[in-house]
Amino acid sequence: MPGTKKSLAYTRVLLKLSGEALLGEKTFGIDRNFTDYLATEIKEVHELGLEIAAVVGGGNIFRGVSDTALGMDRVSADHMGMLATVINALALQDALERAGVFTRVLSAIEMQEVCEPFIRRRAIRHMEKGRVTVFAAGTGNPYFSTDTAAALRAMEVKAEVILKATKVDGIYDADPMKNPKAKKFDRLTYLEVLQKGLRVMDTTAISLCMDNHLPIIVYDLKRKGNLRRIVVGETVGTLVKE
Questions:
Q1: Cα–Cα dist 200/171, whole Å
Q2: Helix boundaries (H) for 26-145
Q3: By C-alpha distance, which of 116, 102, 202, 119 is closest to 157?
Q4: Which spans in the chain are helix H?
Q5: Is residue 128 exposed (0-12), middle (13-18) or buried (19+ Cβ within 10 Å)?
Q6: Could you tell me the domains of the chain?
Q7: Hey, what's the torsion of the CAs at 88, 90, 91, 94, to 10 degrees?
Q8: Neighbours of 3 (CB within 10 A)
Q9: Cα 238 to Cα 216: distance, rounded to the nearest angstrom
Q10: How far apart are CA 44 and CA 29, in angstroms?
Q11: Model pTM greater than 0.85?
Q12: pLDDT single digits (tens) 152-196
């Protein structure tokens, strides 16, 4: 059962996971060991009483703007990418439920045999009842990324912050994997992210968050306990805010 919310810095958050995050140690598909690790991290904060939703990308299986999709009709390619996110959402649901966390997958594309359709009030009710909700199929529209879907869903369910889980411990002025001299930012404004062309989330998602005053925290997904540190109020990663 969820615990007390008194010690939490946030009561409701949206976790944005890239499809690539589910790769774990693999080069394609889903690493079950890593989804189990993710489930453990989410379960820990859920037991503190946090209401949590997640949006998962599909890049580990198919991306509408990838080399694989080159030459394809963009709308068809994006629809394939949306279906990939449903596969990932079901994998995350399976891992969470094996960890003992009640979970619901809500899809922007209706497929009643495998998950519920996204209905805003239903999603909020699931969260109020202590269920982790996983939003699949992006916004349900081509040309919009799962970053934009995360910003949209966060505002629809009245999340207080977007937690953008990445492979690095924040936002840098260059790729720290390639440039050891890359400088890390502790805090940025939305405009700085847009003006500097920092690839945190796409410009549509950043603009949406800016217009609706929704903070974003970018943090290292692979460092155990980071999610808990954030929700209890510790300074982790990079904060994007006004």
A1: 7
A2: 32-46, 74-98, 120-128
A3: 119
A4: 32-46, 74-98, 120-128, 146-156, 190-196, 203-211, 226-231
A5: exposed
A6: 12-240 (3.40.1160.10)
A7: 160
A8: 12
A9: 8
A10: 25
A11: yes
A12: 999 999 999 999 999 899 999 998 888 989 999 999 999 999 999
